[in-house]
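Hi there,

I know you've been waiting on this one. I reran it after we fixed the sequence typo, so this is the corrected version. Both the input and the resulting structure follow.
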Amino acid sequence: MNMIIYDASNQILGRLCSVIAKRLLKGEKISVVNCEKAVLAGNPRFKKDKYKHKYERGDALKGPFFPKQPERILRRTVRGMLPWDRARGRNAYRNLKAYIGVPEELQGKKFEKTKFDASNLNCNFTTLGDVAIAMGAERRW
C-alpha cells in the first residue's frame, strides 16, 4: 500500500488533522512533514497560553500528559479526532508518522496539500513551531 505524504507548511492545523484522521480511518498510511510550519489561526498570545496550560495541567506522575514538540502536538491533535477508545481508532493512529522538516527517506517524493491554506486567513495566526518554543521545547528545526 502506498504511503500518502502531507506537507503541513502553511496549512491550518485543525483542518489538516481532520482530513488526516478521516483517511487514517479508511486504512491508509500517512506521513506528515514540516509539522513545525503548520498554522494556528487566532491571537498568537492566546494560542501560546492555551497550549502551555494544556501542557502544565495535571500531575507530573499521573497525567494528563500533553506533548510540547511540534510533531507530537500534531499527532495528539489527530488522536483527538479518532475514536481512541476503540481498537479501530488505535490501529488507525499507528499508521500516522509526523516529522519536523523533511527526512532523508522522504526527500524527492511528491507531497500532498489540503485546500485549507493559511494564505486566505483574515486574522492573526502563529505557527506550531512558535507555540512549541513558547511551551519550552528545544528548537530542532
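Quick highlight: Residues 79 and 93 are 7 Å apart (CA to CA).

Best,
R. S.
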